[in-house]
Amino acid sequence: MGTKLTLTVEKTVIEKAKSYAKQTGRSLSELIENYLEELTHEHKNKKTLSPKLKKIVGSVKLPKNFDEKRELRSYVERKHL
Asked: Which of 7, 58, 67, 72 is most buried (CB neighbours < 10 A)?
């Protein structure tokens, strides 16, 4: 269940974030939640991500039934056949 959170953020940052959220088909709440989840998850595991990887974390939203092995196999078959 979601809990309401009030933040104070620079207006220009909010505008850019809303634009990004719209372009990627997600809500601003979802972006922030994903960021906070990744931030706290990363801290727990003490695995550090490169700054470039941190920027793209959460930028792709895959369907729930996404099968990584099947997609990889399909890609390799198309590439080599």
From this structure: 58
Say if CB 49 and CB 56 are below 8 A apart.
Answer: no
CA distance 62 to 7: 28
Q: Residue 43 — very low, low, confident or very high, per pLDDT cuts 50/70/90?
A: low
Reading the block at residue 27, the tokens are: 């809500």
Distance CA 51, CA 5 (A): 26
Of the candidates 43, 17, 44, 19, which has an alpha carbon nearest to the alpha carbon of residue 31? 17
Q: Are 34 and 58 in contact (CB under 8 A)?
A: yes
Residue 42: which H helix or E strand, with range? helix 28-45
